[in-house]
Amino acid sequence: MKTPRKSSGGIMRKYYQLILVIVCCVSVVTLLIYRHEYYRLRYVLEVLNIFGKPGLSEIEFCGPGFNATLLTEILRNSSMEVREKPPLFQQIDENFYSYSSFLRSHQKYENLSPSEAHHIDTIVIGKANVLPQFRCNIWLENVRKPKPGKFAYKAMGEATKDYQLYVFHCSMPKNLGKPEAISFYINDYHINPIHAPIIRVIEVVTKVKPRLNSNIRFINNIEPAICVIPNQVPLVSKAAFIEFLVFHHMLGVHHFTIYDSTVSEDIIRRLNLIPPDITQWEIQFFPLNYPFIFSKSYEIVHKAVELDCLFRHFKMDREENSAASHAVVLSWDEFLVPRFHSNLKAVFDDSDPTRKVRSSKIKSLLFCLNQNDDDNAEVGYPEIIRKTHYFKLPEENKPIYVRNFDSMTSFDDIFNLESSTNVISVDIMAVHKYTECRDGKNFQASGSGYNETQMQVFQHKFEGAMLKYGPSLVNNKIYRLYKSGQIWEKHDNEDIREML
């Protein structure tokens, strides 16, 4: 009689255990759902805080076709320093995407008398086989409804792989208030222009202020600015990030504008821990969203980024300490390397002493990372120092252009970059591109490039200009912090100067 009761009690205990397991599982699932909803609510509140604007809803600002994943990227990289309105690709219609808009207004500057009170330039990428046929609205400060503007457009250069870079112009003859945003829409009664995506405008200068009591058009000061875009394989390591910044800072570059969403938050946050008196550079980060297929649109996006870079760096007063005199767009794997000079100022003093050349053309040399290291290079030096042969592969290596602001007297000169061009010889300076060389037509899942035997087939030539920068690079304070690994393990309460 006792045995059945024990068996019955054991069964009951198993049921109790099963119920407890079910309750635990339900609790864990409920907790995960709560956590997920909490983060969604927090992201929404942050987006409202970042993009909110009286009189305009967030939906109107983002517009149709806006890449929602970019918002997550912006929030994830919350430590980025963004002092200006970021450029973002937004869909106007199925054929055209706007990037950034810039306001030219005569009210801000004296001694100017343009034909329109306000003029807005918008960088746009569109299909090359479709002509732009739009109308534009200008949104004014503290005004709920927009005012119609006069639309025009200008094609910038030749088409690139079925894409064309445009500048859309929208002007207003009367000063009815301060413009804050612009929108474009097709002339179709089925579409409400109020629902067109709205692009915030950035105020820019329109004319260089002449120096008082002087007819000199330039000053003997070179302040180059570098705008950085992702590599064609859009990943950047900590080493490539630090080496690029430190190397070009050694050449006299203090202004970096980075258009890249692939740089990890940890790299940016750690870099921000270094005091400004140690870095002595200014870095501006902008996210970069691609609305097209990456491999097919890289060149046209490069052109759009360059135009945005020039618009932002064009300064009214060249005597300002923060004014850039030259600008160039590079990817993380490209390095400006003088052959004999020690900095960029010395290069341009020799190649353009009067600062009249609008564009300087620099040849790009391809250095394969899968080549053997140079025997004369120190073992502990970075790869960019140890690779000393550039190769001629079947793929075309496009040149890099450095634009000279000191040759520009008005904002319109940006639209005429080819008015005067100087070719800088490789004996003076070249752009070294460091990448893994592989057959672009033969996909390899492993990602490996040409082997040693295959590399010997291609023409290659020795170029040891980088070797002389090896000691200065590895002894740089910021590079030493990176190599030591301490900066990546630093806590907020530690002084970074003690690590030097």
Automatic annotation (TrEMBL):
Transmembrane segments annotated in the record for this chain: 15-34
Domain of life: Eukaryota
Keyword list, A-Z: Membrane, Transmembrane, Transmembrane helix
Protein name per UniProt: Glycosyltransferase family 92 protein
Species of origin: Plutella xylostella
